[in-house]
Design goal:
The complex is a heterodimer. Chain A is mainly β. The longest helix of chain A has 8 residues. In chain A, the strands form nine sheets. In chain A, strands 13-12-11-15-20-17-18 form a seven-stranded mixed sheet, with no helix packed on it. Helix content of chain A is about 5%, strand content about 35%. Chain A contains six helices and 36 strands. Chain A is globular and about 70 Å long. Chain A has a domain of about 140 residues: Immunoglobulin-like (Sandwich). In chain A, a hairpin with a 7-residue loop joins strand 1 and strand 2. Chain B is an alpha+beta fold. Chain B folds into two domains: about 170 residues, Glutaredoxin (3-Layer(aba) Sandwich); about 45 residues, no CATH class. Chain B is built from nine helices and nine strands. In chain B, the strands form two sheets. In chain B, strands 4-3-7-6-5-8-9 form a seven-stranded mixed sheet. Chain B has a two-stranded antiparallel sheet with strand order 1-2. The relative contact order of chain B is 0.14. The chains are: A mainly beta, B alpha+beta. At the A-B interface, strand 25 and strand 36 of A face helix 1, strand 1, strand 2, strand 8 and strand 9 of B. The structure holds copper (II) ion (CU). The site of copper (II) ion has 7 residues of chain A, from loops. Copper (II) ion binds next to loops of chain A.
């Protein structure tokens, strides 16, 4: 990809801070943007450039309002989750439900059941969506119960203490596995790559929505705020995410509700239970389109997929009307490989309130926010001091032209992602009582004396692919066996020579101790789920493994690298639910027998033709 | 030209079908084109615009195999087939022997696919030195001079580079790109009929490569696979499952010596 493929002709114009006229706005759309987008220019191909993208279609940016995905509504599930006819191997719910769902399971704490479980239904199917106005693009989408599909998918809305079950049906001819990114949930519900479903099959994803325990009590410091979900199927994660399979998941608890009632944060929900008017999720995703309107997808681009059309909530360069008051924006980098660095075109700093899933101990003022693939950050922006009619932009100032790594911040190549239009006469100064330093979610640090083991994982390049500790991922090999309830120190080193690897660890938050030998900056110092393994970077982290036993993975979140097996599997081991015995020690690096109920892949004696499993 | 309906189109949209990118260079060799015995899949059409299949970016250059037969890379080896492509150079002392060894094990697992036209290709990265004789010797030495498996060398360096770049085996860094060992560990496989392709490290476990191959190249709805007693899952996959399950239960199956770093140590 290069500059001439960019849909934005002149970033200097695009950055005009205020008072922009409609004519000027059209100019920012780039060459030929006045034309309806359904007409494609003749495609000019670069005869010798195998990696070049098809030219982005011309369109007028900032003519589509930013869509806010609907919430995933409740559903009546039949058969009832967990009942005899919805068990692993059953006709209706072939993959069953997590064993932790059953109150008899040793991990299942009685306080998980204080509130009735909420039921939801989602289906993965084909859809047609307009990423660029006027162009019908076939894609994949999550369909909520009886509603039209959306890209991103319907937003999960969960609350601490109230369990949720999502019955997911796969209606496409590819494997799908639903990963709830940033959540603390059972192995069966985690979206492990090989716990996938085939066409026509259902799986009940059980989320207890309980915090891990600390000294016997639930540790609310671990409760998340902004999570997301996306497909994690073996071999097809990159393909499926690039074709639309991702969405938001918003979680609250008593701490966040207290912040909302004290007007530190705006309401998450409106009166009808829809997304609150001043709490705006924004998923950034870059894509590219073929001349026929289909999604450009190169399965043999192994460095990582880069696009030249910049979507926010599934729409290329939308606008958002904002009132003269403060807002919470939830940023999600749903790119496969593109790293973004976001700033406001006015130069006004962000008030960052979260890192990945977790609210920060204290709000922090930052000039820009760097998001690697998979990462989230919530910010507060106050528009009360901007005159009505002000137009400003959320822009990406990070330049990147291949999947390996960005070239660096380049203001000349900045791209406006979202246009913000300040509207309305009413001014609400101090609509939120928050500023730099305002306490948000308390943080409970893991201390060095809790650490029982140290592991070193080195990311390396191997003859055209990537490995961790000189090995490719193998789902039948346990790379690290961890004792339930213990804390470990992990040292991750990127020695892969030229690639950045956003590293995501499932099931638990990690606490970064040192980044290249130094203490991390304030917003990185508490909890993280996706760490920036830039080239020649070393990160030392503490992690505690609680609540759930079974296999989980950690991997590069450049989804192309992930599909090429840049992934490792760890198993958290605790007492066996039946015998009470703890698994034999030292499975590290050995093959092991995956428990059929835990992974939701029926045993051969249940199914005469067992699944392809690897 | 046959146009697909939207429904057919959606059904075919699975593999990340369409590609719009550079047209591969035409073969320089003036020899007449030999008709491929396999039909290529239907064109990919949406909104009345036809776009390229991924394989159309593979150059259709002439290559010679270990039996001295001249073939056109795209027309004869790729068009309408299931393919596994690896790279070698006969003087390689690095990963190539492992690549070939693992390809052989994949070949054995996928035996029955061969009857359905699986094409194995080992492409020489060293056209200036590798001769037909070298390729034959190499194939014999590794006991892989087998039907359906072509060890091929292109006519020159330029064609070779074009072939590997078009199939995804390249480095953006020019210095790394010249280092042949950077490419010799990549296996590329796919099904030209469904336009689905994938790449994996050739050093991966052969059974895992075989399973990825089966998943990536399968055709038709998989809906019935898990429950019907009919053909369902390809026989190879069923055998593989049985074998892998048996392996898991065998406590001595510790073939992957734990990488020293990942073993827990005292803090
Ligand atoms: Cu990576």
């Amino acid at each position: 990809m290069n500059a001439k493929n960019s849909p934005v002709a002149d970033p200097a114009n695009a950055a005009a801070p205020s008072g922009m006229t409609r004519r000027q706005a059209i100019i920012t759309g780039g060459v030929g943007s006045i034309l309806a987008a359904s007409v494609f220019p003749n495609l000019k191909l670069h005869a010798n450039e195998w990696s070049s993208l098809p030219q982005a279609p011309s369109f007028t940016p900032f003519t589509q309002a930013l869509p806010i995905p609907n919430r995933l509504g409740d559903a009546t599930l039949s058969p009832e989750p967990g009942c005899e006819t919805a068990r692993c191997g059953s006709q209706d719910v072939y993959h069953g439900i997590a064993p932790e769902f059953h109150p008899t399971h040793p991990s299942h704490h009685p306080d998980w059941d204080r509130l009735p479980t909420k039921h939801h239904f989602m289906e993965v199917n084909h859809a047609v969506h307009q990423f660029v106005p006027g162009i019908e693009t076939p894609c994949l989408a999550y369909f909520a119960n009886g509603t039209t599909p959306s890209v991103p998918g319907p937003t999960f809305r969960m609350r601490h203490g109230q369990p949720s079950i999502i019955r997911m049906k796969n209606s496409i001819d590819l494997e799908t596995s639903l990963h709830h990114h940033g959540a603390h949930s059972p192995s069966h519900s985690d979206g492990h790559p090989v716990h996938y479903t085939f066409h026509g099959e259902c799986r009940d994803y059980y989320y207890p929505n309980a915090a891990p325990r600390h000294n016997g009590e639930q540790d609310l410091s671990e409760n998340p705020s902004t999570m997301w979900y996306h497909d994690h199927g073996n071999d097809v994660t990159a393909h499926n995410v690039a074709h639309g399979l991702a969405g938001f998941s918003i979680f609250t608890d008593s701490i966040e509700e207290d912040l909302i009632s004290r007007k530190v944060l705006p309401a998450v929900d409106d009166a009808s239970g829809a997304q609150g008017a001043y709490d705006i999720p924004m998923a950034f995703h870059d894509t590219a389109l073929n001349p026929d309107g289909t999604i450009y997808w190169d399965p043999l681009n192994h460095d990582g997929r880069i696009g030249n059309i910049f979507l926010t909530n599934g729409v290329a360069q939308p606008y958002l009307n904002v009132e003269r008051r403060a807002y919470r924006f939830r940023f999600l980098c749903a790119n496969l490989a593109r790293v973004i660095e976001l700033r406001l075109s006015t130069g006004q700093p962000w008030l960052q309130i979260s890192n990945d899933s977790w609210l920060l101990p204290k709000a922090a003022s930052v000039s820009t926010i760097r998001l690697i693939p998979g990462k989230r950050a919530d910010v507060i922006v106050d528009f009360s001091r901007m005159p009505e009619g002000t137009v400003l932009y959320i822009e990406n100032i990070m330049d990147q032209d291949n999947g390996r790594k960005p070239n660096g911040v380049d203001l000349k190549k900045r791209i406006p992602y979202v246009q913000l239009r300040v509207v309305g006469k009413t001014v609400q100064y101090n609509s939120l009582k928050i500023g730099a330093g305002t306490p948000l979610r308390p943080h409970v640090p893991i201390t060095p004396d809790e650490i029982v083991a140290t592991r070193v994982f080195v990311l390396n390049r191997s003859n055209g692919a990537w490995q961790i500790n000189q090995q490719f991922y193998n789902a039948t090999r346990c790379d690290a066996q961890i004792k339930l309830g213990t804390a470990e120190r992990w040292i991750l080193q990127n020695k892969s020579g030229g690639w950045w690897h956003p590293l995501h660890i499932h099931v638990e938050s990690h606490q970064i101790q040192k980044l290249n030998g130094k203490a991390p900056k304030e917003v990185w110092a508490a909890k993280t789920d996706t760490s920036p393994l830039e080239d020649n970077t070393q990160i030392e982290m503490f992690m505690k493994f609680r609540t759930f036993c079974g296999p989980f993975v950690f991997h590069c979140h450049n989804n192309n690298h992930e599909d090429m097996r840049m992934m490792k599997q760890f198993e958290i081991c605790g007492p066996d639910p039946v015998t009470g015995a703890t698994k034999p020690p030292q499975l590290n690096g050995r093959f092991y027998n995956v428990d059929s109920e835990v992974c939701g892949i029926p045993k051969p004696d249940i199914d005469a033709n067992p699944h392809l499993f690897s | 030209m046959e146009k697909l309906t939207l429904r057919q189109f959606l059904a075919s949209a699975l593999g990340g079908r369409a590609q719009a990118a550079p047209t591969a260079p035409a073969p320089r060799d003036p020899a007449p084109v030999r008709q491929s015995s396999r039909p290529a899949a239907s064109p990919l059409v949406n909104r009345g615009i036809e776009v390229q299949r991924r394989s159309e970016r593979f150059p259709d250059v002439w290559v010679t195999n270990q039996r001295g037969e001249r073939k056109r890379f795209r027309s004869d080896l790729i068009n309408g087939k299931k393919v596994i492509l690896g790279f070698i150079y006969t003087r390689c002392e690095g990963i190539c022997p492992l690549t070939t060894h693992n390809m052989r094990r994949v070949y054995e697992i996928l035996e029955e696919e061969l009857e359905n036209g699986l094409q194995m290709i080992s492409l020489s990265l060293d056209p200036s030195r590798d001769t037909v004789h070298d390729l034959a010797q190499y194939a014999n030495d590794h006991r892989v001079n087998l039907p359906g498996w072509d060890f091929v060398v292109a006519g020159n360096e330029e064609d070779t580079v074009a072939l590997r770049k078009a199939t995804g085996a390249y480095e953006i860094d020019p210095e790394l790109d010249r280092n042949l060992s950077q490419h010799s560990g990549l296996l590329t496989f796919g099904n030209d009929r469904t336009n689905r392709w994938m790449g994996l490290g050739a050093g991966s476990d052969p059974e895992i490569i075989a399973k990825s191959f089966i998943r990536t190249t399968r055709e038709g709805a998989i809906a019935r696979l898990s429950r019907d007693s009919g053909p369902g899952i390809p026989l190879a996959a069923r055998r593989l499952n049985a074998r892998m399950r048996a392996a898991h239960e065998d406590p001595v199956c510790d073939v992957a010596a734990a990488a020293s770093g990942s073993i827990a140590t005292k803090p």
